[in-house]
Write a structure and sequence with these properties.
The complex is a heterodimer of chains A (113) and B (116). With 113 residues, chain A is mainly beta. Chain A has no helices and twelve strands. The chains are: A mainly beta (113), B mainly beta (116).
């Protein structure tokens, strides 16, 4: 079946530190991969996505590369800010399906000044 | 423009009662999804509508759960004989349809359901 596994949190970093949140997936077919973010008190927002192998999604300084050989889509940011504190969800959608997303459990990030 | 809206934002009910949760998608989005998010978990798919019809209801946990979208816009998720295990945040998302699937899903703020 289709599933997403992401590193457990919480993750606590100091401002300007480097961030990596690991995400691996299992999928039949050819998935599209996503990172969603949930800021405190807000709804889920799409952060970035990649639809085929070797694509790199990027937004707000965050990046993730679709690695088919390692079935991974790790989220990275070179220098985190306090405003990046949120819960991050990795997700997949199997292309050709009806598009429902399969999410990981989420990783809570806290950035301290 | 307006995003996805959900009402109520919070709902507290007693075990055994009936509840309705409403979702108002982004105008023009033909695809609509319901998800359920339990504490400490990622959202789990419940049901997908394409237009007025439920194209995939494989995520509904049992026959106490039902959803409708009679005019292809607003959707209502209905839960009969609620149980304490139904307590969760219920999320709605909508998107355009594109060739080969659906476009980016936009999520509403959710309805937090608490069953006492």
């Amino acid at each position: 079946g289709n599933s997403v596994t992401q590193m457990e949190g919480p993750v606590t970093l100091s401002e300007e530190a480097f961030l990596t949140i690991n995400c691996t997936y299992t999928a039949t077919g050819y998935p599209s991969l996503f990172w969603y973010v949930q800021y405190p008190g807000e709804g889920l927002q799409l952060l970035l996505k990649a639809t085929k192998a070797d694509d790199k999604g990027s937004n707000k300084g965050f990046e993730a590369t679709y690695r088919k050989e390692t079935t991974s889509f790790h989220l990275e940011k070179g220098s985190v800010q306090v405003s990046d504190s949120a819960v991050y969800f990795c997700a997949l959608s199997v292309r050709g399906s009806q598009g429902n997303l399969i999410f990981g459990k989420g990783t809570k990030l806290s950035v301290k000044p | 423009g307006a995003g996805v809206s959900q009402t109520p934002s919070n709902k507290v009910t007693e075990k055994g009662k009936y509840v309705e949760l409403r979702c108002d998608p982004i105008s023009g989005h033909t695809a609509l999804y319901w998800y359920r998010q339990s504490l400490g978990q990622g959202p789990e798919f419940l049901i997908y509508f394409q237009g007025t019809g439920a194209a995939d209801d494989s995520g509904l946990p049992n026959d106490r759960f039902f959803a409708v979208r009679p005019e292809g816009s607003v959707s209502t998720l209905k839960i009969q004989r609620t149980e304490r295990g139904d307590s969760a945040v219920y999320l709605c998302a909508s998107s355009f349809m594109i060739a080969g699937g659906t476009d980016t899903q936009y999520f509403g703020p959710g309805t937090r359901l608490t069953v006492l």
